[in-house]
Design goal:
The structure is a homotetramer. Chain A is of the alpha+beta class and about 475 residues long. Chain A has two domains: about 230 residues, 4-Layer Sandwich (Glutamine Phosphoribosylpyrophosphate, subunit 1, domain 1), CATH 3.60.20.10; about 190 residues, Rossmann fold, CATH 3.40.50. In chain A, the strands form six sheets. A seven-stranded antiparallel β-sheet of chain A has the order 3-2-4-1-10-9-11. In chain A, strands 5-6-7-8-12-13 form a six-stranded antiparallel β-sheet, with helices on one face. In chain A, strands 17-20-21-22 form a four-stranded parallel β-sheet. In chain A, strand 9 and strand 10 form a beta hairpin. Chains in contact: A-B, A-D, B-C, C-D. The interface between A and B is large, with 52 and 52 residues.
Chain lengths: ~475, ~475, ~475, ~475
């Protein structure tokens, strides 16, 4: 709950979703529109689409939801036998419109459009190296740095794909990229495989997306996920794989399963929905509690609550109604009434919790303020006991790979024990998913995981 | 599903939600903002707020969601020791902005602001009578007719509330009204009680809302629902009831329970959430089926699915993921791809339905096209059988009281038997809730029901 | 200058321009767009167009310039074999959008659209009479009162035009109206003829406009001006005149010649341009001055400066450059720099005034602050002497007929003698046009004048 | 007339205006706002401002007029102890928002904001050289190329100003630049001096602007114009000149006098207003004609008409009224009515031309369509003869230095003799300003001129 988009102040935010499509039948901008719409949960602040028609690139991007930024006329104008698109949680302040992607550039070999999900580490040296060669940057984003690397590499490379391969070989961090040249569509995943990226087909069309749900949404069939380090080049209707940057099975961000991804997506072979049900089951096994009902905090806690119910035998119920209409411009209550803010978007169902001992499943605790309010709603609605169960371990460290986890000073688990948090939150008991169980929630996954925010141990060196 | 807001072409739409508040502490516009936000599901096309400061009325209204139409500055400007607000599904074409409410008028006794949920019948005579006395109307809405009636009645009445009582005494049809004069806030429900209206308090503040969820959202306590025909006048901080138009226990629109209202609302003493669970239970008893899993079509089918599962013993599961980001300006697929349109907003969870016999609960069938597509999604995801269960009887007649049910020519149940619909929809079996069971789904309700759309028998004569 | 649109705070504003057209060839909304554009100088805050297609009325109106409010799609949608349009200087604050015209109403005989230029007096009794019969008003505008009168009168009248004739017979004040019913276009001028209204043709099309320049702009030929009190009805392509309300030659607002109207318009047979040249000539005769150059304050002072130069023999020159880009949303300098505000929109031409004795012609002095700044610009640019000449007498009284002249407390001529004003403004000499000469500036005019703002004597009793 | 902003299709457009200010008192964004507003005639499609506060750069830019793009809140947020701003006529199609300036970049030494008026030639080699070193460009604009050159040069330069000097040394073409680093404001003019750039002061503030009128508008005093090739660096409140790129007295675009610049500006010591008066005088001497009145086509023809009248003794008059309200979004008449399009923005004053032999002064003839329409207006208004005089020679070649003159195929003077053009335009006689007289119109100018569009001889080699 605390991680939901359009959240009350201080929430976490995944930064991006990417989509790309090659379709000789055209209308690629429209397909990308629907693809981005399916990925809207990965970023609600800005979005954009670039398209190729007869090797000419055009684009449109702005601040807002996909449905706000694009109209029918714009999609028709963009057309496209290829297109790439992006949704993002933009940085605040001036220039946010400029940070919207796709990043479109002109360079020695023509034009490129780049969309990027992830975050690099240790780029200051690389950025300075480029700058000392005279590079100028319009933004501080890693995406522009990647584009620059590709443009540089293109000079001594025989093809765009070779440039992508060379440019990304030495980058450290998370990047699921789609690059569009006038003739080629190139998808690329970092060698650690932090962020998902999959590939699908629909007739002669070939498409890439952050999550499989986007491919299904446009009527396509998911073919496979890209391997960590893999590059797939689409040219003249043929897809070809370049695997020279591949190094191993990777380290998928485990928080994609717990919170970010849509439950109908499959990531590294693991259904996100099932991973959440598993998290609930594991929590139920981890500690017993005498209770009358199990409920989840919408949306990501719902699946876990069902898993908990199945494993524990305690009946599952719906404990909350969530207001779906919060938008970018929603006016949040001012400071004085912050404590009651949660009731504007969440309402407890009295008939389900009154006079009952309740197990409440949520996906995470960041600062602890939201869960105190939610538990307050249940008490008001007559719950006798509230036993909070969290489908993740305590956050103890920042993420360097694209999740906007606040610094340690604002992470309650850096300052308090679970027992203290339980008391602060007003719960009768509190249990986090153990690290041991965390590693069991995605048994079908064909990859390893990054658990850095829970362990402070990262797959790549994050020191600058 | 077919009735959801932001629905694919041809869906039903409830037309309005109303909210009003008296609070000597001020900031009534802001409270109304949060109240309307909680009622946003009752109308997404236009909204507005009128407020009183020192007996002076000001207002703001426009096309759009509550979060789009209002900003902090506007709310501060409106302020208010009293305010009324409205959300509506506006009529199409020119003038939609003009049709937004509150309706604000100047008349012999000063100003009035009126918000209205419902629809009148047999008003043509009344309208002509007024017109022959020289009245001019700016819109075709019933709301303006009601405002006119009140203004007329005020001339020979000793108070605004008396004018409201006299003006509404002879009106036929559905009206849940809130009227705001410079000094009084007056709530009024039609004698048949078609649409809900309740009253709450928070400290010295007194408020009215279409649904109880709005009172809870602003931190208030629900005091009671207005009786059919009741008028409540708030003046100088005191609430007084006028019951001269009360005639009986009323005929609440039963579709409020099945689809319109938010599950956390209580209407006529009946929890909407529980009514939906009951509908599922009743369907389970009504006919047996051998199946592996019960799922609901979001959102209103989910509660019913849990009831069905509890009663039948077949396990409950989540079968669909619904995209939450569709907005007013979303570009729907064009004619050629309409068949696949549903997949843009709904996605089947393969892991839950693959290889299974599925019972799927939905709230209604209007034209039958949407349910065919939804069943198609389940088949694609590997469902072996799909048994559709509908928490309402077949629609056979239009609604004259505020629900936008299409005319008979577009109601599939007017042209086809359930068996034919089952085949057209591609289901393995289809069962509608029987009329007998319909009457059992709200056992706690203290009122009678209007079931006109299912029986073509209406509580008031609908012939012009 | 002080009266210019987009003026610095406190300026005068004419309130409206009207246009109406019947054209069996259609596209009347587009013609009205161009007609209103030619009348934009009469009101820049809001505008609107209503059109009839197959007896159905549609409309569009909003806050903004004609070029901002309408796009091609809207004009095409409006179409129209008849249309009426309006530009206005809207009232401030909430509801300004609601005050935009055309006023569109539904009444016993169908629909009406009304556009109105002018202002009534003594309407409180009429308003109360209507209200006591039950009328409700949505605005405080006279226009709505007129519409109501017509709708009332229509009940016992045999035609719309008869209703217009009866309804306007007893109204006092200024009204140049165009009324559009589903089948008829009716233009009407008050019996005093305060505001202009003329009629033109283009092929089979018949049109009406506040000023002749609008008829010329759409390619039409000016046929004639309506007489005071005259009503012209266009039906089935034929124009018919009703003269029962005609009483005399009328009292045209003399300020139309001095400031409001466009110089290429002809009003009551008098070229506005020539009237301004005459005003300059009369000022030159009124008093002599030894000077090197005559300049005008743009725009209305330019013509007068040429007349002054011709009469006096002192060379004419261009003394100022005016910035043309000020728009509705222009940010005026804040209080501290108000004194220098005028230089943002006006710049003196050093080469024309340096070392010279300058005669500067302006159209009026309201508060005197602007002319002090303008004279300051000339001093900065090296003018040795500045002799101010004003093409109107001092303002000593408010206008009740549609010109937004401030109350007496803010009129400098109510508190100071011309000599004092001259000193306050920093001029070397100051001369107002005498009342005697005022009456000579429009020798071709076939009407009398209203000079109330200069004499406090009005053609109709303005006491309530 | 044919060159006026907001012109009918096919007109010429000057591309840019620049403004920059250092003011330790702050509020530089607001000063820039007023400065840009005074330069609005140099570009109406897009604008922007970048400001420095505590060495941090922020900016705002968008499509629209200055008054549309900025509001008070944005200006306050920008604040600034330094600021630069830009108005431009943006390129069409996608990305026009991206092409708005200031161009803001991040590079090895921090940030830069660049505003640019002009156009380079022979840049393809330079662009390729940069690209082969790996540069990427976001736009095709020369401005980005200049920024890149500065960023490159900064690596081996000891200061920003040295980098500007080195980077611009070898550039060919027109550039009046203002560059803002976190601590310095640097103005720079190309060695040919194609475009104007001047410097002013107001108290401790130092400012630069394309035209002197902008400095006057913000209350400053014009100090001097930059010499061709000169660089002025403002640092710590001191201005220092770098003259190593200076080569001679330069070649000012002569069309700045004829059309682009505001008449109250002084360029190279020559009053623009006087240059236009001179052009009229020269035309009068060039050929005699028997006529009754001399009129100018607004706006740039007005001054010339007065000069013509003074020289010829034929009386000057105002022949046209121009509609001032055309905006960016004005809907121009469609193809069928193009012929009459001009009457929407221009109206002839019958009283001044009827029955007269008219000399009409305009600034240029591009395609000849507009002047035919204007002459048609005079004929309709009763002019007996129309003798057209043009304050420039025939256009026979394109401009490579920032004026959007169409290619030869659309220049009427490339295909027709003056006699033919006279006949096509429907004039009784036609005379262009001779090349010889062209060179006399700016006698006070301290520079040479570029007359390339009239002679096809350019100060720099324009062949690629």
């Amino acid at each position: 709950m605390e991680l939901s988009p359009f959240e009350l102040p201080g929430a976490l935010h995944e930064e991006c979703g990417v989509f790309g499509i090659y379709d000789p039948a055209g209308n690629c901008a429209q397909s990308t529109y629907y693809g981005l719409y399916a990925l809207q949960h990965r970023g609600q602040e800005a979005c954009g689409i670039a398209a190729i028609n007869d090797r000419e690139q055009s684009f449109h991007k702005d601040v807002g939801l996909v449905s706000e930024v694009f109209d029918r006329e714009t999609l028709q104008r963009l057309g496209g036998t290829m297109a790439v698109g992006h949704v993002r949680y933009a940085t605040t302040g001036a220039g946010e419109r400029e940070n919207a992607q796709p990043l479109t550039i002109k360079y020695v070999k023509g034009t490129l459009a780049v969309v990027h999900n992830g975050n690099l580490v240790g780029v200051e040296d690389l950025r300075r190296e480029f700058e000392y060669r005279g590079a100028i940057f319009h933004t501080t984003s890693d995406s522009e740095l990647i584009a620059y690397s590709i443009a540089q590499a293109r000079i001594w490379s025989s093809s765009v794909e070779e440039a992508v391969q060379r440019a990304t070989r030495d980058l450290r961090g998370a990047f699921s990229l789609i690059v569009m040249s006038p003739q080629k569509l190139i998808a690329c995943r970092d060698p650690w495989g932090f962020r998902p990226l999959c590939m699908g087909r629909k007739g002669k069309a070939i498409m890439f997306a952050s999550e499989s749900c986007a491919i299904v949404a446009v009527g396509g069939t998911v073919e496979r996920e890209l391997d960590p380090g893999e590059i797939v080049v689409v040219h003249d209707g043929q897809a070809r794989s370049i695997r020279t940057n591949c190094r191993g099975s990777g380290h998928m961000c485990i928080f994609e399963y717990i919170y970010f991804a849509r439950p109908d997506s499959v990531i590294c072979g693991q259904s996100v929905h099932e991973a959440r049900v598993n998290a609930g089951r594991l929590l139920a096994r981890q500690s017993k509690v005498a209770a009358d009902v199990v409920i989840g905090v919408p949306d990501s806690g719902l699946d876990a609550a069902r898993g908990y119910a199945q494993e524990s035998g305690i009946p599952y119920s719906v404990g909350f109604v969530k207001n779906r209409y919060v938008g970018r411009t929603f006016i949040t209550p001012d400071q004085s009434s912050r404590e009651q803010a949660v009731r504007i978007k969440l309402s407890a169902l009295r008939s389900e919790v009154e006079g009952k001992r309740v197990v409440m499943i949520d996906d995470s605790i960041v600062r602890g303020t939201t869960c105190r309010q939610i538990i307050g709603l249940l008490r008001e609605a007559g719950a006798l006991e509230v036993h909070m169960r969290v489908t993740a371990p305590p956050f103890i460290a920042p993420c360097y790979f694209g999740t906007d986890i606040p610094d340690k000073s604002r992470l309650i688990s850096c300052r308090h024990t679970p027992e203290e948090i339980c008391e602060l939150a007003g719960a009768d008991s509190l249990e986090f998913l153990s690290l041991e169980n965390l590693r069991k929630l995605a048994p079908d996954a064909t990859c390893g995981f990054c658990e850095g925010c829970f362990t402070e141990e990262y797959p790549v060196d994050v020191r600058e």
